[in-house]
Amino acid sequence: MRHVPGHGRTLSYYDFGRTTVYACQADPRFSYCAYIPRCYDEDGDDRFRLLVAIHGTGRDMMATRDHFIALAERHRLIVLAPLFPGGITAPRELSSYKRLRLDGIHYDTILLAMIDELATVYRIGKEKFSLFGFSGGGHFAHRFFYAHPGRLEAVSIGAPGVVTLLDPDRDLMVGVRDAAEIFGAPIDLDAMRDTAVQMIVGDDDTDSWEITIPPGSPWWQEGVNAAGANRKDRLRSLRDSFEKHGIAVRLDIVPGVAHRLDGLVSGAEAFFSDVFTSRQRTDHRNFTEGNNK
Description:
- The protein has eight helices and 13 strands.
- The protein is of the alpha/beta class.
C-alpha cells in the first residue's frame, strides 16, 4: 500500500495499470475502469492528461480502454472508460446514453462525476480532458461536445450512426435549436472552435440497416435520416455543419475498414498524439518566453 500525497488515501496494487471496475459513487448504477501508466509516480506533483474513451452499444469498455494503453504510456495519459449499462431507462434498452440526456438521466453529468471521483485518487488535469467515442460512443462524444465544449482539449468522433448537426433550425436530435433548453446553456461556438476535432470512419462502413430510423421508432424525428444513407455520409454532413460555423475538423476515412473499433484506433491515436505533442510544444514555448521577459 502506498500513500498518495494530497489525496488522503493509499494506493494499492489494483490502482495501477489496468484498474478493476468501480461503481460511480454519485450513482452506482454506472461504473468505470481506468488505465494508469507505468510512469505514474504517486510522490510526484505534476498532473497527467486525461482521455475518456466511450464504448459502443456492445459495452466493451475494458477493450475500449485497452486500445489506448500505448498512447497513455507515450504521453503520460490516464485513460478513463465508463460503463453505461443497458436497461437504465427501460428493460433491455441499449441506446439512452447515446442521447446524452433522456428520461431524467444526465449521462454527461454522470461522466463528469466519474472524473471528479478519479481526481480524488490521481493527479489529473480534470478541467480539460480529451474524449473518444466509437459508434454509440461517437453519438455520445459529439453531443457531449455540444453540451460541454469548454471541458474538452480534443474530441475524436468515431462512426456514429445518427448525427446531430450544428443546425439552429431543427431540434435535438436532428439539430441544436433547443440545445440551451436541454443542456441548460447555449452552445459555445468559440469554445468549440478552440477544441481539436477529429471525425473518423472506415471507408467500408456502408451498412445502413442499423442506422436508418423508421417512423414509430423512439428515435424517429422529421429529418433524422437526412444527413446521409450510411455512417460515412452522415459523418461528412456533420463535418460540413461544423465547418460552416468555423470549427476546424480533421476527417479521416480509413481504407479497408468497416464498422470496427480496432480498425480506427490507430487513426485516433495519431490524432491525439499530434494534439498532445503540439500543445506540449506550445506550453513549453509560452513557459520559456514568460521566463525570458
